[in-house]
Structures are given as C-alpha cells and as structure tokens.
Amino acid sequence: MRKLRNRQWLLKSRPEGQVATHNFGYHETEIDPHQIDDGNFLIENKAFLCAPTMRNWMDPPSKNLYPSISIGTPILAPAVGKVVESNNKQFPIGSRVSTLSSWQDYEQIDPTGRPVNFVAEGLSSVESIGKFGLNSLTGYFGLTKVGLPKAGETVVISAAAGATGSLAAQVAKILGCRTIGIAGGREKCTWLSEEIGLDGVLDYKIDKLNDGFDHLCPNGIDVYFDNVGGAMLRTAVNHMAKFGRIILCGQISTYDSDQAASGPEDMMRLIYGSIRMEGFLTRNYTAEFPEAIKQLREWEKEGMLTLKEDIRDGFDNLPKSYLDLFTGQNRGTLVVNIRPD
Amino acid sequence: MRKLRNRQWLLKSRPEGQVATHNFGYHETEIDPHQIDDGNFLIENKAFLCAPTMRNWMDPPSKNLYPSISIGTPILAPAVGKVVESNNKQFPIGSRVSTLSSWQDYEQIDPTGRPVNFVAEGLSSVESIGKFGLNSLTGYFGLTKVGLPKAGETVVISAAAGATGSLAAQVAKILGCRTIGIAGGREKCTWLSEEIGLDGVLDYKIDKLNDGFDHLCPNGIDVYFDNVGGAMLRTAVNHMAKFGRIILCGQISTYDSDQAASGPEDMMRLIYGSIRMEGFLTRNYTAEFPEAIKQLREWEKEGMLTLKEDIRDGFDNLPKSYLDLFTGQNRGTLVVNIRPD
Predict the structure, then answer these.
(1) Residue A172 confidence (pLDDT)
(2) From the CA of A201, how many Å to the nearest CA of chain B?
(3) What is the distance between the alpha carbons of residues B226 and B247, in angstroms, rounded to a whole number?
(4) Predicted-complex ipTM score
(5) Which of the residues in chain B have pLDDT under 50?
(6) Residue (of B54, B64, B46, B47) closest to B19 by Cα position
(7) Which tens digit of pLDDT belongs to each residue from A234-265?
C-alpha cells in the first residue's frame, strides 16, 4: 500500500467566546500505512459525530478532566471508520469500528488508550454514530443508570428536542414516567407535545420556568436531565422533590462562551432535600453498548422511538456543519459523512 | 397532675448575619398535662443538642426545604426527654425518647409528624444525644451510606475536629481508608494527627488547601465529606478523583451569614469526572439508628473511637452555649443538660 493522502482540519486558534470558522485550519499530510505500532491499527474514517462537548475540548488545559486539543492538531471527534491496516488481531482489516478519532482521513488508533466498539451488524456506518451512536446512548444511560426513574415519577428533560434529550424523554415515557420537556421555539415544542407525546412542554424562550415548574410539577421534579446548566439548572434545583436526582450530562449554555458552568446557588437545598447530582460519561458504560443498541433498535422498529439524524456530506463541510450545533440549525444528531458506505 | 411551669426560649427576632443573644427571648407559660391529643404524648425535656444547622431554621421560610421557626415560638432543637403523660400506648409514661423538640421544659409530641427514637438501654440521656446522638450518627451514615468508601481510597473530611467530622474520620480509618482531615488551628490539628492518627491534616488557617491537596492527595480525593461548603468545597471539587463522591452534610461556612451556600464553580468537572454530590439527612436512616448506635458503642468500648462531649448545665445557658458553636469554643458535641438523670 502506497502512502495515503490525509486531509485534516486542525485547531488553528482557540475560540475566545464563540467558536467560528477561523478557529479551524485545513491541512494535508501523507500517512505511511506500513508504520503501525504493535497493538495498534489504522482507521479510515467514514463519518464524524458533531457533539456539543467538543467545544470544551477546544479550551486550554484545565482541571476539568476533559481533553484539550493542542493548537495545530486535528479536532478530536467521535468517528466511525474501517480498519485498513492492523497490528492487532482483535481488530482485523475490514472491521468497522466507532471510537474517538479526529478530523482527518486516517488515524492510527491505540485501542488500549480509548474505548473502541465494533459497529453492530445491520447498521450503516452513519447510523452507528447517528441514530444509535453516542447522543442516543448518552440519553439512554444517563436516564436509566444515573437518573434511576421509577414509573409514575416526574422527569424533566432540558434540551428535550435535541438528540440526547429527545431520546431520554422518550425512554422516560416508555418507563412510565410523567415526562416534561424544555425546548426553545414553537416548532420544537409542538414536535415534543404532538409527535413525541410528552406530558408537558416548556418553551424557555417564552415561558417563565419557575412558574412552569410550579404548574407542571406541583409535587416537584424527581429526575432532572441536565443538558443545559446555568440558570435553567439553578431553577430546576429549586423545584426538585425530596430524594430527587439531577443527571449532569451537559452544560451547553456555557460551552460556547468564556464563562464557567457555575453550580447551584444554594447547596442547602440539596442537603435538606437529600438530592443527588451526578455527572457521568457515556463511555463508563461501554461494555453495555451492544445491549443498549439492541434495545433502542427494537423500540425503534416497534414505532416506540423517533430518532432524528441530520446528515451532512463532505470533509470540507466539517467546521461549518459543526457550528450549526450552537445556532440550533441542526435537526437531530448531526453527522458529517465523508466516505459513504 | 397540676399545671406545669414551662420555661421557654423563643425566637425573638431573626438574626441578620451573625446570630446573637438578643435574637432570643425568655418566656414562661403553664402546661395542662391532661390536655394531650389522641396519639400524642407529653415530653419533659432533659437535655438539648446544639446543632449548627439550627441556625438555618432561624432564617425566614425559603425553598430550601428546612423548617423556619416562627417569630415568638420556641427554638426547635434535637432533644432527649421523658414521657410524663401519654395518649399513645407505644410511648408509655416513663419512656425515654429522643426527638425534635424545642427549647422549653415540656412539649406535646405527635409521633406521626417526626421521628422518635427510644434511648438505648445503658445510655444516659446526655449520651443518647451527645456521644451517640445525631452528630455522631450523621458522620456515620453520611460516610458509609452516601460516601461508600472502599479500603485504600483517599477520604478527606472537612471540619474534621468537630463532632460529626471526627466521627466520620475515625470510621474512615476503621474502614481502611487513607484519611485526611481539615481543621482550624494547631490544637485541633495536633489532636487529629497525634491522638486520632489521621494520615494527614491540613490547617485551613495557615495551609493553602490547593497545595495541600496536591501534596496529600496526589491521586485525587475519592470521598469528600463536606461540612463546610463555600471556597473549601470548591477547592475540593477541583481535586476530586474520577468517580469521586462528595457527601453534602453541612455548609457551616455560610450558616451564620447573609450569604447562600453557592455550589461548584464549574459543573463540567463533575461531568467529566463522573463525580457524585449527594445531600442527605440523618433521619433518612432512622430505622437503622439502633444498629448504628450498637456499632459505635462497641468501637468505643474497644478503644477504636474517641467521642467528645462538651456538656453545659442549665436552661438559662441555652442561647449562650449555642453561640459557642459559631466561635469554635465548644470541644466536641455540645449538649445543654437542663434536668440531670
């Protein structure tokens, strides 16, 4: 195999406040497919998931435990690809895998350093990181493993029209919970109440959340799925029921800004309410991915789940497509397909 | 039985910032021991526990889920007393019970409205709310039920020389954890390192906590027992290990002030660290009190636990003794004995 042309999108400069196209720089290199370290394999990326949390990775290193992309290196991103060279028998040439890769055509992967999952049989590459990828799995594991909702409880989902939120909301319904969604704008709210069938919807652009919670959650919130953080989280904390659980999944209200995602205004409420707030990463449940994907596929087949993908094409479009996440222009899980199956 | 003279300390005014003796007012009433509602009993209080969190109860009603003492009514307080009249067969005359009562000689108790525990055989009244009372039980249940420490893990206890903190620290040692205590001043720190035998001690009055954690907890904090809140909590959050647990027990740094107990400065660390923060009330574990008290008594008998009581005498001294909690003048669990056994 001769050297391979490798297109890349690099982090050219760190965003100050909002991320913009000028923070990304295009570059090309060559990859020698014969220089693969023992135990590693070479992946040819097929599609990338655009995840909001990648914005955090563009910040300078901090104590926040997340990776910080170095200036001049490719943008880290969840990806699906095909193994094209391998020095690891567990990952033979031709396998399709999803893992944390980066915005480039090829990358050498050390599977001891990051979780690598095989694409389930019957799924397209795009589906494996889209409909049945990390966004959906995050909603599923966050709700079921961290939120531990019981039938009849009141569950509130923030960013409920998003890929993660809408999955969590639908699973909460399936589990028999009274489910309230928060979203921005009439189109999203109508979709949540009429198509998804939630028990209540709050439009944060026009509704006062405090009054909305008083009205829709008179006995308090048992489980709050926090994708947003900030003022919305603080208002939710004031409405949590005793023994309530707050699933700390994301803080998108602060990602694309200079501000840190500050916490509750009064911890005493957590104490007297015996309230639990718990952060999690979906990769904590890697071993359970296959079973979860099987469950989600079944529910989708039975018409119990609506999973939205927003598929863009072309390596060139990566930065532009990514930015749509922060202006709400995507409709469901945003995937950029660079090499169709 | 004729009418009983009933001395009271009332909340005369709400503290603005620091609580002071002028916030309390002395009053006397008479109690008719024959007017006891069905199912209730009359308790003759023998001793009161002075608990820091009572300061919160002196604030106006809020969304914080804790009681707010009405102006002109007796100060709510954990107490031990003797049943002197009863319309409830479960609580016959002569029983000794601990419950939430208030600063007065007599109070009619409705046992359906609050937990009531019988004093364990062999314990004095003072011991039942002192050494083996709520402060110790709070340390025990918070550490074991919320913190879930495993042998070999690093546990950090704030206010570690206090009644709750020192119990939690000693139990952490018994469970095989590397245990670091934070306290203020040389006397307390020396006691913790030399008599209690902690693995490390930080004096928040002179040590920089950030550097101290770097030095004493190089692999991060697995369990943080938070009695203090505020800046100390925020620094600890930045040093939590992955899958760390923060036991939200108290926020004493803000009780005696006009400020709310604000939370972490960046929730992202909780997300990427899969960190859990959980509030609790000791009364959640009421059913397990007898077993826990038995365990603590055994450990004390075997010389594995040092339990400190600071016993004051006299009803008249209640407000003054209570204030000592906030100036650090107490040495261990502060109990005011108004009617010796």
Answers:
(1) 98
(2) 23
(3) 6
(4) 0.91
(5) none
(6) B54
(7) 999 999 999 999 999 988 888 777 777 888 88
